[in-house]
UniProtKB/TrEMBL annotation:
Similarity comment text for this entry: Belongs to the CDC123 family.
Pfam families per the UniProt record, alphabetical: D123
Classification of source organism: Eukaryota, Fungi, Fungi incertae sedis, Mucoromycota, Mortierellomycotina
Annotated region described as Disordered, given as residue ranges: 1-27, 116-144
Acidic residues compositional bias, start-end: 124-137
Residue spans of biased composition, Low complexity class: 13-27
Name listed for the protein in its UniProt record: Cell division cycle protein 123
InterPro entries linked to this entry: CDC123
Amino acid sequence: MSIYRPEDEPEQQEVGQQQQQQTVTTTEDTPLVFPPLTHQRLENCAFSSWYPTFRSISIKSKIIPLPEDFVSYLNADGVFIPGQSGLTLALSDSEDEGDDEDISDADRFKALQEATFRQRAEGEQDDSSDDEDESDQGEAPLPYFPGLEQEIEQTITEFGGEVFPKLNWSSPRDASWIAATNTLKCQNVSDIFLLLKSSDFIAHDLAHAYEDCSDAAAEGAEGVKERPDTVDLVLRKWFDLAPSMEFRCFVRDNKLVAISQRDMTYYDFLKGIQDELEDKIVDFFEDRINGHFPDSDYTFDVYITRNKDRIYLIDFNPFAQKTDSLLFDWKELLQLDLEDKEQLDHLPAMRLLESEAAGSHMQQPFAFNRYPADVTDLSNGQTVAEFAEAFYKKVQAASTTD
Ligand SMILES: Nc1ncnc2c1ncn2[C@@H]1O[C@H](COP(=O)(O)OP(=O)(O)OP(=O)(O)O)[C@@H](O)[C@H]1O
C-alpha cells in the first residue's frame, strides 16, 4: 500500500459519522467524495485477506504470522540485526584484512552497513543510559528469533533461494537503497530483517495503517485501531518483473474504469501494444477479479509477462487517497458519471506516459525516502566497497565526536 501524501493536496477532513462518505476538499473547493475507508475495507486489502481467494492467479507466497517479540523488535529504534547474522559479528570482530578475502563486495557492503547500524544503535543505547552501571553498557543481547529465522530460511529454500518481502499491506520499497543489490530481492534472513527495520513504509503498516479510517474499530470502540491484530510477514517467490508491464487498475462500483502504467518511465514500445494490453486486462478483470473481491470500489495491480501470455495479480489497494493514483487524478476518477451509458462505453481509460519529457515530470516514487543526503554526498563515483568504507568511516568519526 502506498503512503502517498501529495504536498499540494489538501488534508482529508474529519468525517463524523460511521460509514459516511469521505470528503476531501480540493484546491478549487470542489469536494471529492471518496467511498468511506472503513477498517473492513482496509483489511480486505491486507495480503492474508485476499491471497487465499486469488492464489491461483498471483505469485506463489507464504504468510508467516510474526511473534509479538519480533513485532516489538521491528518497532524498536535502531537497525541491529538478530544474533544469527554471522557477517555482522565477523566484521566487527575481525581487524585482520586477510580474513576478508573470501567476502564478496556485496557481502562486505552489507556487513559494513549492519555493523554501522549496530554501532549506531549501541551509541544511542550508551547515550541514554549514562546513569546505569558502566559494566552493563553496550552489552544488551542482540535479538534472536530462532523459530522465525528457521521458517524464513525454509521458505527461501522452497522458493528457489530468492524472495520478495512485505507485511500486511506494504513492502519496504523505500529501503531498497540499503540492500547490496538495490532491490528487494532477499536471499537470507538478514537481508529481510535489514529491509524491514530500515523502512518507513513498514513502520507505517505497524503503527499507522488505520489512521485514515472513517469508522470506529469495533462497536463500542472510540477510535481507530492502532495496529493490525496479527502482523504477517509475507514472502513471495522472487520474480524478475519488467516494470514496463506493471499496471494499476481502478474499480468503481464494480466497473473497471481506469488503467495506468505503474512505473513512471516512458516506454516507447507500449503504445504499439496498448489495445492488446487493455483487452487482456479487461478480460482478466471480468473473468478472475470482478465479483470475487468483497468490495465494489478498490484498485488492483497486475503484471503481464513479456510474451503477454499470462497475467499475475500483484496486490489490492483501497480506492482511497492514500493509494497512488499514478497517471490519473483522483478527482477525474471520482467525478466519472457511472450512470452515463455513453461515458461507460468508453471505459476503461488506459493511460501510458506519452514521452520521456512527461516521465521526467512525474514525481518519482518515495524520492524523499531514498538515500540520506550524507550517503549520496559520499557515494559519488565510488565502487560499492569504497563507498561502504567511506560511509562506515564517516559514521565512526561522527559517533566519536558526538
Ligand atoms: N514477487 C516479486 N518479485 C519481484 N518483484 C516484486 C514481487 N512482488 C512485487 N514486486 C515489485 O515490487 C513492487 C511493489 O509491490 P507491491 O505492490 O506488492 O508492494 P506495495 O508496497 O504494496 O506497493 P504499493 O504501495 O505501490 O501498492 C511491484 O510493483 C513490483 O515491481
